[in-house]
Amino acid sequence: MILPIYVYGHPILRKVSKDITMDYPNLDKLILDMFVSMDESDGVGLAAPQIGKNIRLFVVEGTPFADLDPSIVGFRKAFINAHIIERSNTEIIRSEGCLSVPGIHEEVSRPDKITMSYLDANGESHKEEFSGIRAWIIQHEYDHLEGILFVDHVSPLRKRILKGKLARISTGKINVHYRIVVPRK
Q1: Using CB atoms within 10 A of its CB, is residue 89 exposed (0-12), middle (13-18) or buried (19+)?
Q2: Which residue in 2, 67, 93, 118 is deepest, having the highest Cβ count within 10 Å?
Q3: CA–CA dist 52, 69 (Å, integer)
Q4: pLDDT category, 185, cuts 50, 70, 90?
Q5: Paired residues of 130 in beta bridges
Q6: Quick check: 44 and 65 in contact, CB under 8 A?
Q7: Is 61 an active-site residue?
Q8: pTM score, two decimals?
Q9: Dist CA 125 CA 90 (whole Å)
């Protein structure tokens, strides 16, 4: 099932998400629905808060970045109860966008390497290091679990410049090809 995406201004996007157990209701179906929703929205990641759930779950698909890193083809997985436990001091800057902040792309600086603990879709525990594009995609989705949006990483001046666009997004005055949920007034 294709799920609607919650957009900028919705309070759920600002909440810190909670860990879940593997017996979370319909977890397998939720993960599948998140992959389908991400694919249909042309995203490379989707976090549970973006579909209105305050839980530590996100999915990623790296293949669209194969031109930057051919080894990322097939990097498609779910992360449950993800927690970053280490970040490198070396940072990379890339242009980011977000399904919850449609129509805006900004340069964001993030650590080039992270170590993260998480459960996979089968409930197996992992402690894994990610670098490059993988680390970049994961950190963007991970931020959603912490109530952070990529526009929070831009300078105050850039954020002031984006103020009008962000206001239009929060009122649904945007044109996207996927269903959205706007904040209630």
Answers
A1: exposed
A2: 118
A3: 32
A4: low
A5: 114
A6: yes
A7: no
A8: 0.96
A9: 27
